[in-house]
Design a protein that fits this description.
Layout (H helix, E strand, L loop, with lengths): L20 E2 L6 E2 L34 H8 L3 H8 L1 H7 L4 E7 L1 H10 L12 E9 L21 H11 L5 H14 L1 H24 L10 E4 L5 E5 L2 E5 L23 E4 L8
Antiparallel strand pairs: 1-2, 3-4, 5-6, 5-8, 6-7
Organism: Rhizopus microsporus var. microsporus
Protein name: Helitron helicase-like domain-containing protein
């Protein structure tokens, strides 16, 4: 109507100016009005970024050469990688997602049963119950194709073939090169291969020592604690192993959690069940 005045017309814009000032210590960008009250416009200083140089964080290391090249290039292959980055992440995941996913049909039924919730809009990814990661054994069940962390135990060329078979729209060269890169550079892939080697050697030694003894024994398993220590568990046999080259691990969990079991990773050589 002619007399209608939008509430938006009463809003006043706020202009903070350009974010064109730089901390002389860490080179973080700032607005001039963020400076310390004791500093001047002519010689501003900031404390919210690095406490005037008292906080110094190490720079993140450069990614492996191939990944860095993919991220910095601007050709067709680079655009394909960036457009399918989420699918690439899923293809190289170590574990699967564990949760109850609400399907579009269930959401539609819920909306039909609730008159107050009949609204349009984009579909959302909804889950119920707890969110966790699921992981199977290090060796696939007989008759099943290897997946997730199991692929990191195999040769990178075979792992690339299996990933490509499940993600046929991805560039085969990218899948192949990333498979080789992660097998060589990823510290967690090395840990899982080391765990597989320990369990395989333990199984072989038990087979030789037992001979024709048909007694049933519990399957050994490995626990990786948050402090990145491996423990081989078989009945009363508890051996501790140091994972290889852990200097470059990506995340460190505080030591107060190291004695608790809820963050432990449990690995078995063969199992029909997935663990969470």
């Amino acid at each position: 109507p002619a007399a209608y005045i939008s509430q938006l017309s009463r809003l006043r814009s706020s202009d903070l100016g350009r974010i064109d000032k730089e901390c002389s210590h860490c080179h973080a960008s700032h607005w001039i009005d963020e400076r310390q009250e004791t500093s001047s416009m002519r010689n501003p200083s900031w404390e919210s970024c690095c406490k005037q140089g008292s906080v110094q964080l190490q720079l993140l290391p450069d990614p492996p050469e191939y990944l860095k090249d993919l991220l910095e290039r601007t050709d067709t292959q680079d655009r394909h990688f960036k457009d399918n980055l989420r699918q690439c992440n899923a293809a190289f995941a170590f574990t699967s997602l564990g949760c109850d996913i609400v399907s579009p049909e269930d959401r539609a039924n819920n909306n039909n049963n609730n008159n107050n919730n009949k609204r349009g809009g984009l579909n959302a990814f909804q889950i119920h119950s707890a969110l966790c990661h699921r992981q199977g054994s290090l060796t696939p069940v007989e008759g099943n194709e290897p997946s997730y962390v199991q692929l990191y135990i195999f040769d990178p060329s075979y792992a690339a073939e299996r990933r490509q078979a499940r993600n046929s729209n991805l560039d085969p060269e990218i899948v192949r090169e990333l498979s080789v890169m992660l097998a060589q550079c990823n510290q967690f892939a090395r840990i899982y291969r080391y765990a597989h080697e320990i369990l395989s050697n333990h199984e072989s030694s038990n087979t030789v020592s037992n001979g024709n003894d048909q007694r049933e024994v519990s399957a050994p398993y490995i626990i990786i604690s948050p402090s990145m220590r491996m423990r081989l568990i078989e009945g009363s046999d508890r051996r501790t192993h140091n994972p290889p080259t852990m200097e470059e691990i990506a995340a460190v969990i505080p030591i107060e959690y190291s004695d608790r079991g809820f963050r432990d990773i449990v690995l078995t050589l063969r199992s029909n069940n997935s663990l969470r």
